[in-house]
Design brief:
mainly beta; 8 helices; 34 strands; 8% helix; binds MU-OXO-diiron; binds calcium ion; PhoX
Length: 680
């Protein structure tokens, strides 16, 4: 007979209280230290960061808005060692920027000075930075030859089924095979062969499109216009930072995707530039000379991140992915190649990525009210997709570029903003955060709004009438079980509902959260590979009058451990609407506690751990991001001074706030969050 699977450890720390203080708070017996903050130099030639807006050279400094982060162990010889915890590379996303603080006097309006645009572009992308543990303390190694930055200008390859397709042809790559850089990278994971896997999320916002562009493209029924509209780029929409106004050079012009040239194939302008963004990006942190690849087989949308199912020898690999926008979908990619465990240590990691990620099937999830669900394949071979009236797909590459439209065609379930996904290391069940959705309505009155359903069953209001319902403002975490990686049916329930502890238990606080574990807007999630415990991070705007964003640690059960529950709503005319959903076992102090609260006006984003489970590495994103240009000279108007106020870098109590990576260790050297020493 076999042995029972190992069970996760139990929680072994005292919950921390909600807090509005401008500090990082962790439980008694733990220490949090700052490791790597915006502007930190990545070589010895780049000057120390002055943090006054005069710094330049972000190509060799830490970028801004630290997000998804992963640990890649290094041997003493500086090569890959998956189990190493004393020395490693951190790869991390720099999702966005707090632009006012990057400049001495804040942001200059359009037309943007090129020097400002150059800094802002370079502060986006990805960092690879070496970290070492010496006498129990972690620090980054400024002099490591493996340190590097990837920015929106770094050359990359398009890979997979869409490579070379007409939809990818630009002035930069007439062959449709190459692109420059990555932007708005949000969550991250590690592939089973040891590369970094990063999602391109809100890339749409960085582009502008002329107010006459629909006509230039053949009118608002032209395929490219339907596609641009579905991905949120209406004609006349402004870009987030106005970089296209900074000069005529290609590096600026590319942010304007208007059809300006006379070619039929788009090789004389940037009309197709948006099609080179919105992908999963694979980076080999150990090989600075190997170009990153955008894996087009996994579809194009606002990728929060992608997480691999537990690899099973001889079976395909599954990758679970959320599209973070209101009413968007959850996707699964299933590789054509079956997993060969020897590939976990393959010498050529990017070629291994080609093997597993360039060929496969893409699916969108449909959640049924009875707790079952289907993965619906997005293939041109499906007549529902091939004959879709709203958009005539030309071929499978067109389906992948316009995955949202294909998922519309098959009637996938519109979710409450799918953010991160995490896979339970023992059960293999998949947890997806649905952070919030102001468009989830009791009585939808616009096409942008979604009706309640079993998987998205909540639209909160103090007095539930349709007119005032603000939607699902606190978010929830859904989970599902695939019987195997390629399964097309699954079972699901809702593991946890975010809520304020004092809210109505019948309509809002459906998980019965008490004050030591109440939270709002779950975003980052990750299971510890060592303890099996679940980390939950928040990015909230609904509860921040009471507490800064936070990190909780949980020991979840499994799909179906709770009960069916009905939620009754009152419509505007006084009639009732009852929504039935499936809620997991309500958490107790034994299996859900608040572990960390961040500084003011931040979100808690990326999370990783050292392989020994004794250091938790967390990103604190955009503390004090709310700042007007008029207040940039007055530190008393800054909402946060962290981490300068914690003694890190320049500025002290008056310092400009900085996104930063922190490392959390237990003072007794034990496993993070756990009450024991046995491991999975
Ligand atoms: Fe970048 Fe969906 O958070
Ligand atoms: Ca963010
Ligand atoms: Ca996020
Ligand atoms: Ca978020």
């Amino acid at each position: 007979g076999g042995t029972a699977p190992p069970t996760p450890l139990s929680l072994g720390f005292n919950a921390v209280a909600k807090s509005l203080a401008d500090v990082v708070t962790v439980p008694a017996g733990y220490t949090a230290t700052v490791l790597y903050a915006l502007g930190d130099p990545l070589d010895t030639a780049t000057p120390e960061f002055k943090n006054d807006g005069t710094d330049t050279s972000f190509e060799t400094r830490a970028g801004d808005h630290h997000d998804g982060i992963e640990w890649f162990g290094l041997s003493a010889a500086g090569t890959r060692s998956a189990s190493a915890s004393d020395r490693g590379l951190l790869a991390m996303n720099h999702e966005a920027i707090t632009d006012q603080f990057l400049h001495a006097n804040g942001v200059t309006a359009n037309p943007r000075p090129a020097a400002e645009a150059d800094k802002e572009m370079a502060a986006h992308g990805i960092s690879v930075v070496e970290v070492r543990r010496t006498n129990g303390r972690y620090a980054y190694a400024r002099d490591s030859a493996l340190n590097r930055r990837i920015t929106p200008l770094t050359p990359m390859q398009m890979s997979g089924p869409v490579r070379g397709h007409a939809l990818l042809k630009t002035k930069y790559s007439a062959a449709g095979t190459d692109t420059r850089g990555t932007i708005n990278n949000c969550g991250a994971s590690t592939t089973p062969w040891g590369t970094y896997f990063s999602g391109e999320e809100n890339w749409v916002n960085y582009f502008t499109r002329a107010s006459t562009d629909d006509a230039a493209r053949g009118g608002n029924t032209a395929k490219s216009v339907v596609s641009l509209s579905r991905y949120g780029k209406a004609q006349g929409a402004a870009s987030r930072h106005g970089w296209e106004t900074a000069g005529i050079a290609d590096a600026y012009a590319r942010w304007n995707v208007s059809q300006a040239g006379t070619s039929t194939d788009g090789t004389d302008d940037y009309r197709n530039e948006m099609n080179t963004f919105g992908w999963m990006v694979e980076v080999d942190p150990y090989e600075p000379a190997v170009a990153a690849r955008k894996r087009t087989a996994l579809g194009r949308f606002a990728h929060e991140m992608g997480v691999f199912g537990v690899p099973q020898a001889g079976k395909p690999l599954a990758v679970y992915m959320g599209d973070d926008s209101r009413g968007e979908y959850i996707y699964k990619f299933v590789s054509t190649a079956n997993w060969d465990a020897n590939d976990a240590n393959a010498a050529n990691r990017m070629a291994t990525g080609d093997k597993y990620l360039d060929s496969g099937r893409l699916y969108a999830a449909k959640f049924n009210a009875d707790g079952t669900g289907q993965w619906i394949e997005l293939t041109i071979a499906n007549s529902t997709i091939a004959s879709y009236a709203a958009y005539r797909f030309a071929d499978q590459a067109d389906v992948l570029v316009n995955a949202r439209l294909a998922a519309d065609a098959v009637g996938a379930t519109k979710m409450d903003r799918p953010e991160w996904s995490a896979v339970h290391p023992v059960t293999g069940e998949v947890y997806v955060t649905l952070t919030n959705n102001g468009n989830r309505k009791v009585e939808p009155s616009a096409s942008s709004q979604q009706a309640l359903d079993a998987a998205n069953p909540r639209s909160y209001t103090d007095a539930p009438t349709a007119a005032t319902a603000p939607g699902n403002i606190n978010g929830h975490i859904i989970r599902f079980r695939d019987s195997e990686p390629g399964a097309t049916a699954f079972s699901w329930d809702i593991y946890l509902f975010g809520a304020e502890s004092g809210m109505d238990a019948a309509k809002v606080n459906l998980s019965g959260l008490s004050g030591d574990r109440d939270f709002s807007s779950p975003d980052g999630v990750r299971f510890s590979a060592k303890t099996g415990l679940l980390y939950i991070e928040t990015d909230d705007g609904a509860y921040t009058d009471v507490t800064n964003c936070m990190l909780l640690i949980a020991k979840p059960g499994q799909v179906g451990d709770g009960a069916t529950q009905s939620i009754e709503y009152t419509k505007a005319d006084g009639s009732k609407l009852t929504v039935q959903t499936r809620v997991g076992a309500k958490p107790t102090a034994a299996n859900l506690r608040r572990f960390l609260v961040g500084p003011k006006d931040c979100e808690i984003t990326g999370i990783t751990e050292t392989p020994d489970g004794r250091a938790l590495i967390v990103n604190i994103q955009h503390p004090g991001e709310t700042i007007a240009k008029a207040n940039i000279a007055d530190p008393s108007r800054f909402l946060s001074h962290w981490p300068a106020n914690a003694g890190y870098g320049a500025g002290g109590a008056n310092g400009r706030p900085r996104s930063a990576t922190i490392v959390i260790t237990r003072n007794d050297g034990g496993l993070i969050g756990a009450d024991g020493t046995a491991v999975l």
